[in-house]
Each structure stands twice: as structure tokens, then as C-alpha cells.
Amino acid sequence: MEKEITLREAQSMVDAWIRTYGVRYFNELTNMAILTEEVGEVARLISRLYGEQSFKESDKQKDLGDEMADVLWVLMCLANQTGIDLTEAFEKNLRKKTSRDKDRHINNQKL
């Protein structure tokens, strides 16, 4: 079995790939636009797989996992460019959500 990749390792792998094959990072605004485009591709596929939209021929070969990985890739590029350690940011965010929402969903009668 292969060793699982941590979020920190994945960020490092993206950085190494960019520096080896990508020449340089696109600027942050370009990467933000690319991230938006990639999220749109995930939304498009989900609307066809789980929603009421019908598939076009060009959508039939798309893989949801691959599309989500594209989103993660560009997010990691932006994190690398802006000096964000996503492991630290995620852990901090999880603590925030736990503190803020520990009773919110349990007490939500709609759920």
C-alpha cells in the first residue's frame, strides 16, 4: 500500500512540479480566475450526475474526482503563492468551526 500524502506534502509536491514543469506560478489573479473556472467544472458535473441537467457528449467522459483534484491543485498554488500553510489553516478552521458550531447542528430541528 502506498503511503498517504499529507496536505503539507501535497503543497510541496505542487510547488516542486510548478518549479520543474510549470516554469513559474501564474499570478494570483490569474490563479483565482482558474480556481473559479475549475469550481465551475465541478458544479457542472455534479449538476449532471446528481441534478436534473442532462449530459452533453463533451461531459460524458469527465471524472468528478479529477475535477475536484483540479480545484485542490489551484487552491494549493494560491496557498503557496500567498504563504499559507493549508495544514495549519485547516486545523485552525476546524477548531473555529468546532467552537462556534458544536451545538448548532445538533440542535437544528431541520436536520
Account of the 3D structure:
The chain is an all-alpha fold. The chain contains four helices and no strands. It has helices spanning 7-22, 28-49, 64-82, 86-101. Helix 1 (7-22) crosses helix 3 (64-82) and helix 2 (28-49) runs antiparallel to helix 3.
SSE ordering: HHHH
- Largest β-sheet summary: none
Structural class: mainly alpha
Radius of gyration: 18 Å
What is the count of β-strands?
0
Ends distance: 38 Å
Helix content: 55-70%
Number of continuous helical runs: 4
| 3D shape | globular
Report the portion of residues in β strands.
Answer: under 5%
| Overall mean confidence score, pLDDT | 95
Poorly predicted runs are none
TL;DR?
The protein is mostly helical. The protein contains four helices and no strands.
Keyword list:
mainly alpha, single chain, globular, 111 residues
Indicate the topology.
Elements: H1 7-22, H2 28-49, H3 64-82, H4 86-101
Helix pairs in contact: 1-3, 2-3
